[in-house]
Amino acid sequence: MNDPIEPSSPDDLRRRGWRVAVHNDYRQHGQHWTFWLFTRGSTCVKGEGRTDAEALDSVRRQLRSGLDPWFDNPRAVHVLYGGFPLCGFSQEPPVDWPEGMTWVGLSEWEKTTCEGCRAKGPEHLRELPANR
User: Fold this and answer.
1) Domains in the chain: ranges and CATH
2) What are phi and psi of 59, to 5 degrees?
3) pLDDT grade for 9, boundaries at 50, 70 and 90
4) pLDDT attached to residue 129
5) Rounded distance, CA 40 to CA 59, Å?
């Protein structure tokens, strides 16, 4: 997803499936600050700064540092197992995934580009119950 990022807007984060849980502007010691909290599934990330751009850049840095392994690869192809991605990036069905995310079934495991799904490996797939 190479869309231009507006530093003061969370739209790029929303496109990746992150939801704004809290956004507050406040004053501390006479100075203006802003706070953003995002959630996706059971994961949350927050950023604070003097401006929206600073706070949102803090969130983006955290996501890029490993909290969201798909942040820079939002077009990942996941392995679908039991209606959900094998890597666990989302507890939502594919229709609710961020734009660009796709999936393949277990029989097409080799086509996945998601590192989280790939890490499960074919050995792990053999251990999963067949009725999902």
Assistant:
1) 11-67 (3.30.160.20), 77-127 (no CATH)
2) -60, -45
3) very high
4) 59
5) 13
Cα separation of 98 and 92, whole Å?
A: 10
3-state secondary structure 55-105: HHHHHHHHHHHHHCCCCCCCCCEEEEECCEECCCCCCCCHHHCCCCCEEEC
Q: Please tell me the pTM assigned to this model.
A: 0.58
* pLDDT bucket at 74, cuts 50 / 70 / 90: low
Tokens read off for 11: 């739209």
Phi, psi of 94 (to 5 degrees): -50, -30
Place of tokens 């069905």: 93
